[in-house]
């Protein structure tokens, strides 16, 4: 059934995508060599002087680098943990609801924020988290506050984690809901005959049923521990909270593009690229090993 | 005994439902607050009286936006990038996914190209070299800077490729016997049978293009070329981040609060309009994306 000419067709079809991939992903990779230069835009890559590892050595000396690295790790890890926890609990509770209309309405409500941009959501958060905003009004009822959510370095990371959970928990729960529907209903029926109650069924059937999914998502999330969420933080942070809220990506933007220290910015970025690549490779390995996951 | 257990069970059922509905509603409260602020009068907003219901209902902010040419110019740029970028994403996803869905014996380069794309997907190219590359191509301040760098949506390619692989080979082979070439097979067999997957990836790219702000910010030097999200980011966020300057700016911001809320809300409307479709297709997209073998 195969013809020789088929391969030519397939090559022609794949070609445009391949060219764009080279132009916008692999060419920038070669531009990363400026991490080893003292790059001067006027001289270009060819004529800028080479400095070896100077930019990286500088990087390890600046105290900012450590702060930024640990902020990234902390915020990203906490987001992963809390997001998955809330999503799992939400999915388990939603799975208990038998009224289809209630189930669907709740889903419609909680999925919505996922589709809105961080620009819009940050605009909203800045207003409701203000000193006289909705949240402080609410806390005021209990005599708490006002809390400076966006101006207090101790509170700020938790605002990031909390708002990430708000935006994404519904969407994250979809995978768990799908896993829950895949559980064989006879398991529940047999457990009922044996006198198992709601929580026992949840503990002994539902949770083990979604365990492979939990393992899968935990493995895949390893690749994301250096992605603390640029769009969100960029739109919510300010110099007051840099000590706890500045992450690698926002740092690269300010140093590399705003201050024009191209080489330093590239060095930070390259370090992140390499570490991320290793982490993602490990995460895919773990996911395929322990959860039988293949992306293609 | 049995009856009382049933009763307590039903109470727990209700408690769970009440809790979930409350959770769902509170998820939306921030959005309701924004809508209420946009419809209130400035004095009430400045006094912090508006929570979930408009105080001094009026449409002034929306009237202002209707006449705001800069807002609509940015809106136009966004529409342009959604149409152009969405079309490019669609075409490239289809013509890339199809050859990659073939077996290696039909298309010898298949595995090499697949690995290149996967490598490209997990490679997190640094911001600075990425910017310098696009600058070097002379794309800054053109619409192409917003649509070409992300023109091959690799994740969508994988979703579509997996979908194509699930279509029975018999259809394909029947067409081949009738003398169809691969292009005709794609066009007459695979596209018509893949409509749900195509809808899913199209919605993904529409939402992605509509919501992007950062590429607009760094790749457009002229604010006239900003897409809507970048325009709003500059207006609402960047302006507010200098708020710590002093009281005068605070007052200026407060009188702008209504207008900003209205702009945020108008920027949300396109997403709200396609939300029913999003909900229908994205669950499928998620499950398609995590195909297990």
Short description:
Chain A is mostly helical. Chain A has 14 helices and no strands.
Characterise the protein shown here.
The complex is a heterodimer of chains A (296) and B (293). Chain A has a single domain, classed as MetI-like (MetI-like fold, Orthogonal Bundle). In chain A, helix 6 packs parallel to helix 11 (230-236), helix 8 crosses helix 10 (198-221) and helix 10 crosses helix 14 (262-291). Chain A contains 14 helices and no strands. Chain A has helices at residues 4-31, 44-47, 54-61, 63-96, 100-111, 118-128, 134-141, 156-181, 185-193, 198-221, 230-236, 242-245, 248-258, 262-291. The model of chain A has no long low-confidence stretch (mean pLDDT 90). Chain B has 14 helices and no strands. By secondary structure, chain B is an all-alpha fold. Chain B folds into 2 domains: 1-58; 60-289, Orthogonal Bundle (MetI-like fold). The model of chain B is unreliable at 240-251 (pLDDT under 50). In chain B, 75% of the residues lie in helices and 0% in strands. The interface between A and B is large, with 100 and 105 residues.
